[in-house]
Amino acid sequence: MKVALFIPCYIDQFYPQVGQATLELLTKLGCEVDFPLHQTCCGQPMANSGFAAASKDCDKNFVRNFTGYDYIVGPSGSCVLHVKEHLKDDKHPDETIHIRRHIYELTEFITDVLKKEVTHAVFPHKVGLHNSCHGQRGLGLSSMTERVLPAFSKPEQLLSKVKGIQLLKPVRNDECCGFGGTFSVFEEAVSVKMGKDRIKQHEANDVEYITGVDVSCLMHLEGILKRQGSKVKTIHIAEILNTEA
Amino acid sequence: MKDHATLAEEFIKDEARTNWHDETLWFVRQKRDKAAHGLPEWEQLREWASQIKNHTLSNMDRYLEEFEKNALANGIRVHWAATAEEHNRIIHDIIKKNGITRIVKSKSMLTEECHLNHYLEEQGVEVVDTDLGERIVQFRHEPPSHIVLPAIHLKKQDVSDTFHKHLHTEKGNNDPTYLTRAARVHLREKFIASELAITGVNFAVAETGGFVVCTNEGNADMGTHAANVHIACMGFEKLIPKASHLSVFLRLLARSATGQPVTTYSSHFHKPKPGQEMHIVIVDNGRSNILGKPDFRNALKCIRCAACFNTCPVYRRSGGFSYHTAVAGPIGSILNPNFDPKKYSDLPFASSLCGSCSNVCPVKIDIHDQLWKWRQALTKAGYVPLMKKIMMKGMAFVLGRPALYRFSGASARWVLRYMPFMVKFKINPWYKQREMPAPPKQSFREWYIQNKKK
Amino acid sequence: MVYSKQKEMSSRDKIFSAIRKNKPEPVPFAEPDASVVISYPDLFEQFKTVLTAIGGSCIEVSSAAEANKLIAELEKGAYVIDTTADYPENLASLSPGLLASVDTAIIRGLTAVAENGSIWVTEKEMVNRLLPFIAQQLILVIHEKDIVPTMHQAYEKITINETGFGVFIAGPSKTADIEQSLVIGAHGPCGMRAVVIKN
Fold it and tell me: pTM for this structure?
């Protein structure tokens, strides 16, 4: 199968190590991965701010870059969800539909399409698991505390096989971290308060790392942690799963 | 007028109080979870409720006709108000006609929406809100901050001070039982002397021409059964087809609102008592307009349980007053822009789009999807600050063009590395309370080309 | 001179016209099915547990006579209005001012609901609509056989418009409006007891 790697814009620019880990991990799991060189941004920051109509160029560029693949995989729940729900290119409707139906976030791609476990990873640390909202509620990466449905979690499923890891959950298991895209800037006070509260809950578990499927959440939490001078670090799930003995 | 972001920032300045507000409401959300998880059929109940409401909206005229016919046959006088102003006038006319100057009122968000109290007081009518939370905020000349827990923003010390001032309770005695007993005595006088009582309507039943009012305190009943005139106010969307459907809604309402299996009183009114006048005022006030919007009509399914308030991480940390409207929270953010898009254009943005609200909604309103759709609609209509428009259009331009995107990204990283002071200033909203991400030397693409591309 | 008089649309007409214009295409719905909802192995035990949890209390007796005897004992000295026995002829028209001094009201309940500890009472049983709310204490007398599992079965049993007023009463009145502290006894009765005549 031909797999295209979708690296969200802020990962490309500020967290390339997450992209590297994703590429290496998928390769280790037996995928032949291509990275379309002219990809830019999925358009989510503008769309979530009310400017979906303005993201036409992003949409067109996305379709151009990701046409012709069996699957598109990206290390981001929110970007993948946005593409799945809102990608639009009237000039290429079939290609658009195919992309929307075959784009996956990394962990769900491993559990649902590759149907594999990651057995080589080693990460002997106390790690707090952050449930990123769009991945959880939007993509269904895990069950959620509001609903009366059987419990499951694809990220946890993969992380539980990592040797030495101590996975700890905050007392409010799936409360939002407060990033929310441009919300983080236009409602800065609430955004940061939400992030601070989230960190406090993880710190109560005495974690060394906070992980999740969305770098946006982690970037927001990391910003606060660094400002607080905290020793807690953030790390994307791809980086943990890509470790080796 | 200050927008949500500004009001929220002011609220959060008192961090200890924000934490208390947040934890108190989270506790209510947890009680709701416990109640929901106690019923294996919970998700099925939500589906039934959602379908009944969808069906009713699509047959609203037929059910309203059926309701009116049956209500009239029961001896209830039915009034129709196209606007808030008409609703207020109709009620005042009834009061005037009966020569009454003092009335009691139990909780009705519709009357808040129509600013009924203010209207009546200007006409010289004394209005006593009898729900304890509402009486407290009435004394304080504040609006309710939560549609189910009106005084949730107040600590018992605040209530004690207010009651000391208005009811002459002991100064500094903030024992909730003591204060509640004082309110009981005070309001009992009002109930006994009650000549006219106004209530809301939780559910109106087309099949029987009656309506249901739910309270824990018993204040709706204490007012109406003592009075010679009972006026019930409802938005037309409160209608449901059959009596048997009440089972679904009554099982969902209190569990969603407070985690109780049911409110203490679920009062079913069908006929006035002998010698009593019973009126119902059915209100439109923009609802028929919402009914015509496929993207937004689902909001009319709302049963005003406030589960969405309690789960919303933004509401809990900004408080009801930050929404500058009668019905705040997530549901308020999708209802109010219908009434006044300009005034409420900030509300759909007062959200991180986490989606928790849609999950707790007992009637499955797609709240978070509507928040997103409102953002598009308000932006299209031009209700967006100019700075934001420029910024977003600029971003869209850059991010849609590969070469320009790469150039901007590289520049941003360069600036962060060599001229951080350009970005690291306190006016930069990100930088106010967060560090910027560390700027790597290479983007992922650059690394890929160097190391992986064959 | 010819003039046409514009007939002004009533508000009712305006509202109906707008609704007819704006309503979506009709959608069907599935009728709720009581057979898939929760059931309890012992309806009385569930009822008692819930009622106690919500601040009420529950007493079992083996007959109506025993119920009367028990109540007489409990309410010695109190100003009682018992609508299950002899009560004032003019009760229906007694003013709120007079009713305000009632200590205890005793009223027959028709149906009780195990899932939420509530009891359905109509104006026929209560005689005066204000009575069950204005009394300081409320006693509702029910038969164990009239306890149903959930509201679904309750609405199958009762006819809500059989009389002009009916109410599900679940325990004593209460409020948590002051800093979320639960206070039993708001504006309705401060205490509520269910006397259950066992099968």
Answer: 0.95
